[in-house]
Specification:
It comes from Actinoplanes derwentensis. GO terms for molecular function: DNA-binding transcription factor activity; transcription cis-regulatory region binding. Helix content is 63%, strand content 0%. It is mainly alpha-helical. Helix 5 packs antiparallel against helix 7. The chain is flat, with a radius of gyration of 23 Å.
Amino acid sequence: MGTVTTPERRGRPPRLDRGRTVDEALRLLDENGLDALTMRRLAEAMNAQAGALYRYFATKQDLLTAMAERMLGFGADAIADSDDWRQVVTVHAHRLRAALLAHRDGARVYAGTRSVGPNTLGFAETVVASLISAGFTPDDAARAMFAVVHFTVGHTLEEQAAAGDPADVDRLSAALDPESYPALAAAGAALTGPGFTAYFEFGLTALISGLRPG
């Protein structure tokens, strides 16, 4: 008696799923920016009806939250076990900034989202746990984490906005009249130089230096 084989099921794969939709949204973000990212354009790019997207994302804000969650998918490593809370906080702030800079308008997408996904909560858990281990109360550890995150996001918002209009630097340089603004003119190189990484390092160091357990 011959072997009976089950016929292979054929058919078109699902046109949409949550993960692929987020991937495509990030691609469109990098290509055209946040202002051009609409649910209609995303659906068109996926050859689907706009209404189909709402099976996965009730609003555009839900989509942005999922995109923000994906951005933080840089994972964890041995730094989470470090006894130096300043190192843990510094490294995670740099990772957050890099993740936002990896996408056009990444900071604008992330700002205001409230993801409860594993990437976002894992990031927060690592930082807060390190601070608690160092002697911060749980409440102060959470506040310190938010302070670092808000500084990082705000800085990156400015960084990405400035990258969109390099002529701003020339206008600022021309406006720094030494007679009217002698202090600003003296600091002209720092004010107009392409030093966003240096600004970030300075601000982050100052912020972390002001944190104290107890």
